[in-house]
């Protein structure tokens, strides 16, 4: 005969297991919904107009340096829009397959806010933060590349 305490313990453990399965199922549904809504952002149209020559500072992880790279871009007239297009072009380089400083898939610049002369706020999406490799040098190269490309 099986003792009553064992029956109670088995019933309690079974109830906890069923509760955990239900909770995990609900959390999985929330994560799936969040990912679908995060990817539903509208894509900004490319800037039109004459192309200009711009200098982008590209990070190279193997040498731990920033090197200037010339790019021909169609840049809008506004300061803020120009900054956004410059940084989007820089991210396209980093998202390429042969990039020397790769970023996570789906990384993008949401917006750039030029507050005062010399102060800029760069709004990045969650995929950028989640997919970025950790390490002081790699993170410093990314930030220095973004800032250097804006001020170049």
Task: Please describe what this structure looks like.
By secondary structure, the chain is α+β, with helices and mostly antiparallel strands. The protein has 2 domains: 1-41; 51-151, no CATH class. 49% of the residues lie in helices and 22% in strands. The protein is built from 4 helices and 4 strands, in the order αββαββαα. The protein has helices spanning 4-38, 79-95, 126-131, 136-151, and strands spanning 51-60, 65-74, 109-116, 119-124. The strands form 2 sheets. Strands 1-2 form a two-stranded antiparallel sheet. Strands 3-4 form a two-stranded antiparallel sheet. The longest helix is centred in the N-terminal third of the chain and has 35 residues, at 4-38. It is elongated. The mean pLDDT is 84.
Characteristics:
152 residues; alpha+beta; 2 domains; 4 helices; 4 strands; 49% helix
